[in-house]
Amino acid sequence: ILMLILQYGACPVVVMAERKSYKKRNELSLQQKILLIKEHESSKKSIRALAEQFNCGKTQACTIINRKRDYMTAFEENADSNRKRICYKRGHEDINEATWKWFQATRALNIPLSGPLLQEKALQFARELKIEDFKASNGWLESFRRRHNISFNIICGESASVPESMTENWNTCLPELIKNYLPEDIWNMDETGLFFRALPDKTLVVKAEDCKRGKHSKEHLTVVICANIEGTFTKPWVIGKAQRPRCFRNLDLTKLPVTWRHNKKAWMTGDLFKEWISEFNRIQKLKNRKALLFLDNVPAHIWNVTLSNTTVKFFPDTTISCCQPMAQGVIQALKVNYRKHLLRSVLHKIEKNKKVEEIVKDITVFDSVVWIKSSVMNVSPHAVTNCYRKAGFSTEELTNEDEIEDNELEELTSETQLSLNMSQPLLASEYVDIDKDLSYAADTGPDFESQILNEIKGLSRNEDDAEDN
Description:
- It holds the Pfam family DDE_1.
- It is found in: Nucleus.
- By secondary structure, the protein is an alpha/beta fold.
- Helix content is about 45%, strand content about 10%.
- It has helices at about 1-10, 30-40, 45-55, 60-65, 70-75, 90-110, 115-130, 140-145, 150-155, 170-180, 210, 270-285, 320-325, 330-350, 355-360, 365-375, 380-390, 405-420, 430, 450-455; strands at about 185-195, 220-230, 235-240, 260, 290-295, 310-315.
- The protein has a 6-stranded mixed β-sheet with strand order 4-3-2-1-5-6, with helices on both faces.
């Protein structure tokens, strides 16, 4: 510089390169991540739009959507909402999830469990998943217990708060259970499988056994209904395979006539049931009601959240069909109404000279959820009350004013069969019951653990694929 000054007589201007400023990373809290996930589910906003709305990077927004299962689980299990990161190894999380699913199913059968048994089962899942660096230490067990709010007495089967099937004479104990509750506070929830595109022809009916093995999950839905003795229904839930079927793409899912949920097999699961019962309890709390909820005892009906305004009772395992009000005619009435909606739509399309394959394909999931809601609303309160009476919840005499009338369904069924020249027609009564044995939740058969592992291994696949319709 001195030589330059001597040569040119002036001091040159030295320009320093500016240090590039980087925008400070805005790591969203768990609560903010939940808000982002819900915004994504209820709208069709792009990742870029979500990132701008929540003032975070596109990569972070995309990661949150991809890991929404983890964040939702942490939030539901009372994790610190101000926490910004959930750190664990993906492989170990697979073990945790498999162990939790197994725990839920085992506890649903009222089988006592211990800490060492949980550790042994976790090690077994680790071997099956080929994860070699996992150790089911006492530290892991304590972390697992805290994460799922499991207490020592519940694991050992000593807690009085654990729901147990009532094995005493049902007719004797039921009056004692309900005597302190008003009819509006006594509820029954049940699920049912539904072939939502099925026509009254044997050759067009998907086998329920195939669906039980996970096949044809796009052909069936699981419908969740809940009503009290007075005939008041909660908002129906419908569980399908896709998060957002193609027919939902331009819709706000929160404005559907039903609550839509999804998983790979379109079944009720422990996680979904926990969400359902938490919402049911929240509504009872808002209304300042104390509800008595009756359920059948299946592995999916388990939860680990506190129910402030809901008491749960399970039906005896051996008497579910005869003592559950929804199974005494409410579900059948729902399906009669649904088949009528479907056949009216089919007959309308026949007039447009469409082939049977085109007609079936044109029935969308959106059509189905609209028909399901209408079908539920068209089940009269008197019919529901009668079903409670049949199940022994009242000593009053049954009335026949609301007996299910199949005349219209029989006429629609016959007209459809003639119009489509069906080779193996079903009777109207057979048509209503075609999905009677359709699975709506995982069972606890000999291959249950294999089923859990298959589900865990499939989690990396894209579960958000759109259905055909």
